[in-house]
Amino acid sequence: MIKIFHLTKVYPNKFTALSDITLEINKGDFAFINGQSGAGKTTLLKIIAAIERATQGEIIVKGINLNKLRRPKIPYLRRSIGFVFQDFKLLPYKTAFENVAFALEVIGMSRREITKRVSNALQLVGLEDRHNFYPLGMSGGEQQRIAIARSIVNDPPLLLADEPTGNLDAYISSEIINIFKNINTRGTTIVFATHNRELASRFSTKVITLDQGRRVN
Ligand SMILES: Nc1ncnc2c1ncn2[C@@H]1O[C@H](COP(=O)(O)OP(=O)(O)OP(=O)(O)O)[C@@H](O)[C@H]1O
Ligand SMILES: [Mg+2]
Questions:
Q1: How do beta strands 158-162 and 189-194 pair?
Q2: Which among 92, 111, 169, 208 is most buried, taking Cβ atoms within 10 Å?
């Protein structure tokens, strides 16, 4: 699903966020990217999602070499990758339902299909009774679950989750992890970034550990 060889990322201000990373994530994996704040987790996910470009090295996602991917093709790749952002990025003036529906409206899906898919996604994250709530009237854990529902509503084969339990207490964190496990069981490959080492080792057999931009395991 993802193959990375000797990846280096230098940001325009000359800061090297990732150095010489090599890794492989297979179809159906539930992989963790673990490392302290600043280790390069978000940078790595953004490169996999073609939000940022690699400076050096090879990166292949779903058989596509991202270095050779022409700019106009990027939106098509992005549609097959779900991304749960560290800061949710929910639209405050849209309800839970509308936030999840938005990406499907943009691609012109029928109203009936949208209603079916959004209802299923909200049910999967346990928010079936919150369709008409606005994000700001919901708890952090609930907002996180809207963001997860939005990321899976079009059934992407690959789901990238950036610190989705970062600001949640231990109980809610394990509920969120269980949602991801259910999604994984349905066949979706998951890459889950977290600074929480204990969480990573408890829930996954595949843990990629970063330290100051280098892979250390
Ligand atoms: N756009 C940017 N320009 C320059 N440096 C950046 C940029 N984005 C991130 N960095 C730097 O790259 C390093 C890695 O950042 P990144 O956001 O990938 O870390 P992280 O592991 O996700 O951290 P956190 O756990 O705090 O989210 C950090 O030192 C950060 O300051
Ligand atoms: Mg981050």
A1: parallel
A2: 208
Handedness of CA 100, 106, 91, 173 (dihedral sign): positive
| 11 C-beta closer than 6 A to ligand 1 | yes
CA-nearest residue, atom 10 of ligand 1:
17
- Distance CA(37)–CA(217), nearest Å, equals 17
Q: In this structure, are strands 64-65 and 2-10 parallel, antiparallel, or unpaired?
A: unpaired
Query: CA quadruple 140, 142, 146, 149: dihedral positive or negative?
Result: positive
Does residue 17 line the site of ligand 1, with CB under 6 A? yes
pTM exceeds 0.90: yes
pLDDT tens digit sequence for 104-133: 998 889 999 999 999 999 999 999 999 999
Question: Is the CB of residue 83 less than 8 Å from the CB of residue 45?
Answer: yes
Q: What are the φ and ψ backbone dihedral angles of 198, each rounded to 5 degrees?
A: -65, -45
